[in-house]
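Students often ask why we bother encoding 3D structure as a string. The short answer is that it lets us treat folding as translation between two languages. Here is a chain of 309 residues written in the first language.
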Amino acid sequence: MTGIIEVNGLNKVYRGGFEALRNVDLSIRQGEIFALLGPNGAGKTTLISIVCGIVTPSSGQVLADGHDIITDYRAARAKIGLVPQELTTDAFESVWNTVSFSRGLFGKPRNDAHIEKVLRDLSLWDKRDSRILELSGGMKRRVMIAKALSHEPQILFLDEPTAGVDVELRRDMWAMVSGLREAGVTIILTTHYIEEAEAMADRIGVIRRGELILVEDKTALMDKLGQKELRLQLSEPLATLPAAIAQPGLVLSDDGYRLTYTYDSHSEQGSVAALLRQLGEHGIEFTDLQSRQSSLEDIFVSLVHEEAA
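And here it is in the second language, the structure alphabet:
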């Protein structure tokens, strides 16, 4: 099945020889939320900029809803809304005029009802007659989102949309994103708040040094790469770990009072039960037991470090 965005063999080499993207292949499904994660300078913004027609690729092909972004630029760009990291808009125009003008740039007929809905959804309705320069940074960010939605795009790119914004905007924006997905809009986001990707995304892509090193359904990724950790606070300290109990993933703390067992989530029942049974057989008692599961952030950090090694 063809995705609403198809990226094939994409490369970008800037003047001077810097290779920003290297042979990127990616298919994004209609109606999904796709989170693109990577460290600073990994190529996230370059990839988004190419798909949105802002940066020209060195080679490869990108299709947006079947339209080539180079040979059929106008049709492709009309399908896409972009919320960039930078706050760039006409400071002396009103919110209403700015958002309405953005709709007109894509050849869309006037639709005051749609503009009103967008402004209300983003808590901008009371500011509709205010000039952009009079707004706070958070309100300006809301205007950028409203501009991206003005022409009713089928694909929405959010490049670090909540960086440096208040909690209220973050909450409003994610509520709006959920509503857009229900309406069939495809959303691609980059974020430094990995917990947001964990909460919102259907699939995760990880990019590093211009290469897409992983694309995976979020639940499958968490299941496949996630680990669990069991911590046992011992009643009495152990000088050393008994040889009969020693196994990969089991570590005794320096003071001898804590055992930490890291294990694969697939082997949870058998391995944990066996460990607890062995402790009982050797008369090792514990006063407290805690467990935690790897977050998406843990997995992301381990992937990036693994690739860097």
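Translate back mentally: The longest strand covers residues 19-28. Keep this in mind for the problem set.
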